[in-house]
Amino acid sequence: MSESPIILSATDADLPRNIPSGIGRYTGFRDMARGGSARLRSCYDRVTGRTVVIKSLLPESLLDRRERRRLLREARITAQLQHPNTVPVYDIGEDETEGIYFVMKRISGENLFEILKRIARGDEATCQAFPIIRRIEIIADACQALAYAHARGVIHRDVKPENIWVGNFGEVILLDWGVAKVWGAADDDAPMRQSTLRPADEAAASEGHSPGLSLTSLDQRPGTPLYMSPEQVAGKRSIDERSDVFSAGVCLYEVLAIREPFKGGNIEETFHNILNCQVPPPSERSPDAGIPNSADQVVMRALQKNPALRYQSIREMVHDLREIDV
After folding, report:
1. Active-site residue, selected from the candidate residues 12, 14, 95, 158
2. Which secondary structure element, helix H or strand E, spans residue 57, and what is its range?
3. What is the per-residue pLDDT for 236?
4. Per-residue pLDDT at 200
5. pLDDT score for 152
6. Which domains does the chain have, with CATH numbers?
7. In angstroms, rounded to a whole number, what is the distance separating the alpha carbons of residues 162 and 191?
8. Residues in the chain with pLDDT < 50?
9. Is 158 annotated as catalytic?
10. Residue 279 to residues 250, 259, 275, 276: CA-CA distances in angstroms?
11. 86 Cβ neighbours under 8 A, 6+ residues apart
């Protein structure tokens, strides 16, 4: 996905004489990705002269009151989390045909999971572009977004490589606040996520490194199975920011070892591993990867089963991530 060049004629054009309201101001819709109830499309904003992204419900979910409420909540949470590592929201609205929608900045790049897949396959160019130190920096940047969200009373609950966007110009964005928990707000029975919105033509995952989509269930616990904290697996309602610390630790383990630490053959085995199994440090799982001991220490502290033994804030974890010497 490349950046669109700025076209002088577009910047000098007059405003449309009759500026349509709502979604009518956007043209040239193109499908980008879709999930269980929502879709992402790129389109052109005739007023600002830029390409943007719109998230809206799929036609079959337009009349679902719960899905409408969730999408609106996601839009407002995302809009209020104004941080360099979150995506800017430009507009929120409702259309007679499209239903609830919100408009975001279009960011060029790819999600971290795609990068890890290529590294797992031994792609030389990707390995050179994303050495261990760069992968640690990406997790640290995503954690900065979490730190800001936690300060605003928001718990993400679905931190995973598919939700970490790596831009073509070095930016890192933490996406998809669709199952976020806001302190003092009703939980609204946010569902377990099987994956984020995914391109329809995405290649199958490489052996030994597969996305959360590979695990399916009718369970209603919010999050993605491979990255859930023990509190999420146990279905506890009173989770706090330390749950995000655990999920970030799973991501850190994965970017270091290029392996998911708790993956089982099915959801039940994966949940058992999260609740009961002590995983080896990343350096033992991938002994030839050159993983420093200081990175092992950060991972293993973040992955403590007992929240009281983890980092008590994501800021503490970010500090130690910045101190890792590779």
Report:
1. 158
2. strand 50-57
3. 86
4. 31
5. 95
6. 8-105 (3.30.200.20), 109-323 (1.10.510.10)
7. 17
8. 1, 194-218
9. yes
10. 11, 11, 11, 10
11. 78, 145, 148, 149, 173, 174
